[in-house]
Amino acid sequence: MSNNVNIDGLRQFYLSCVRSVIVYAIPAFYSYLNKESKTKIESIQKLCAKIMLPKCDTYSDRLETLQLLPLQQYCDILCHEYCAKVSNNECHRLYHLIPPRQSQSRRHSTRLKDNHILTARTTFYKKNLFFSYLD
């Protein structure tokens, strides 16, 4: 590439031809991706930013110059906005799938009505803590 390449043109190309494909339907599957997959998706933007601005030292400097958010943050915002759009529109075709909101004045008791022993167990792989009921 020559030195007189228009950075704004490259940015617009990236946004319209690359990032738009990456984030297409992102609210449908993003929350199910593991950390490794999210990192791989972010690496696409890192590579594109490096191609657009090869002389910048760090990824964060490139994002600042290009006025872009990290892709993971951008996807989180898209997902949040879509969920808000669905939950605020009773005519939306997915609205009926959202559980109803509980009012502040009427909360359900979280206490167990039966006597069950609540024990903590950990998984072997990630050592995540979860509770299970034992009879």
List the SSEs and their pairings.
Layout: H1 7-22, H2 26-29, H3 35-52, H4 59-66, H5 71-87, E1 117-122, E2 129-134
Antiparallel strand pairs: 1-2
Write a short abstract of this structure.
The protein is mainly α and 135 residues long. Helix content is 47%, strand content 9%.
Structural write-up:
It is a single chain. The chain is mainly α and 135 residues long. The protein is 47% helix and 9% strand. The chain is built from 5 helices and 2 strands. The chain has helices at 7-22, 26-29, 35-52, 59-66, 71-87; strands at residues 117-122, 129-134. It has a two-stranded antiparallel sheet. A hairpin with a 6-residue loop joins β1 and β2. α1 (7-22) runs antiparallel to α3. The chain is elongated and about 50 Å long. Mean pLDDT is 79; it is low at 122-135.
Query: What gap, in angstroms, lies between the N and C termini?
Result: 69 Å
Largest sheet: 2 strands, antiparallel
Q: Which term fits the overall shape?
A: elongated
CA gyration radius, whole angstroms: 22 Å
Question: Notable features of this structure?
Answer:
mainly alpha, 2 strands, elongated, disordered C terminus, 135 residues
